[in-house]
Structures are given as C-alpha cells and as structure tokens.
Amino acid sequence: MGRLCKNQRNAAGKKTELQARLDSYTKAIDSYKKRGLFKKCAIAQTEFAWAQFLRAQTCSIQERDDFLAQAEAALREALTFFAPESMPKEWAEARSKLGNVFQAQAAFSNLDQGKRRLLLKEASTAYEEARAVFKSIGFIKYADMAQMEFASALQDEAAIATDPTEASELADRACSIYQEILRTLESGKPV
Fold first, then answer.
1. Which domains can be identified in the chain, with CATH numbers?
2. What is the pTM of this model?
3. Which residues lie closer than 8 Å to 75 by C-beta, 6 or more apart?
C-alpha cells in the first residue's frame, strides 16, 4: 500500500512539474510575441510542443488527442519562423518533432485507416526533410535518429496497409533502413 501511494505521489508530482513547464512556456511565448522576438517565440513553441507531446503519453484518450493537437499547432507555428537556410538546426528539430506528433496521432487516435496512413506519410516526409538538413549541417547523430524515426513510420504504415504487397514493400524498406543504420553504427561512418 505504501509503495502504491508513493508511486501515485511521484506521478502526481511529475504532472505538476510538467504543467509548470507548460505554463512557463506559454508565458514566454506570449512575452516574445508581444516584444516581436519571433525566433525566441518559435524556440519556446517547440519546447511547449514537446512538453505537450510528452504529456500526451500518460493521459486519457481525449486528453491525448487534445495535447497532440496543441503540439502540432505549436510546431506548425514555430516552423513559420524557422527556415532551413537561416536556422537549420532549429528547423530540422521542429520538423522531426512534428513527425513524432504525426506518428503518435496515427498510433493513438481513433481515426480511420486512410487518415492514419496520411499522418504516417506526413511523419515520413517530416523525418526525411529533417534528416537532409541535419546531414547538411553536420549533425550526423541527429540525421541518423531522423532516419530511424523514418523507418519506424514506414513500419507503422506497413502494419496498417490493407494491400499485402504494399505492406511487404513498406516493411522491406523499413528493414533496409534499419540494416543500413546498423552497418553505419558498426562502421562508425554516417548513413
């Protein structure tokens, strides 16, 4: 009984801490917008979105949909201020996180298969774009992570594909990417 209560207190404490972070990000976003500091605002929006994404991992289905929608909206707005040419790392991080949100929406939302597939395709595109930018600026570990996330999205898409041939092609492509990543880790050279 004591252990259960301690675990419940720890979970409640983490939720309170996360809510405090979200409140802090919201205040920062509002302040940066009022002062015209749009790049700082976009960075705060990216952090707010990631906190909402993490929050969505431990809540009810209805709350999860809401938190993921808030994360998506914040990342989309942040991406209007970032450009791959002027802030490549921040842009690629936001794109990759948007891919994570799309993939989570596809996995956790009560959507029909067609909408889930579209979300997974959007996730794949986000990961591929993030990977290309990370690679172009020499952030190889980040590029490799985006590549793994891309393979994961392909794997998720294969799992819900109704056409067996397409499912097999998607799964084979994901497997090839995973194998390429393993070869890279063994050799120490970037993908």
1. 1-81 (1.20.58), 83-191 (1.25.40.10)
2. 0.85
3. 45, 46, 49, 94, 97, 98, 101
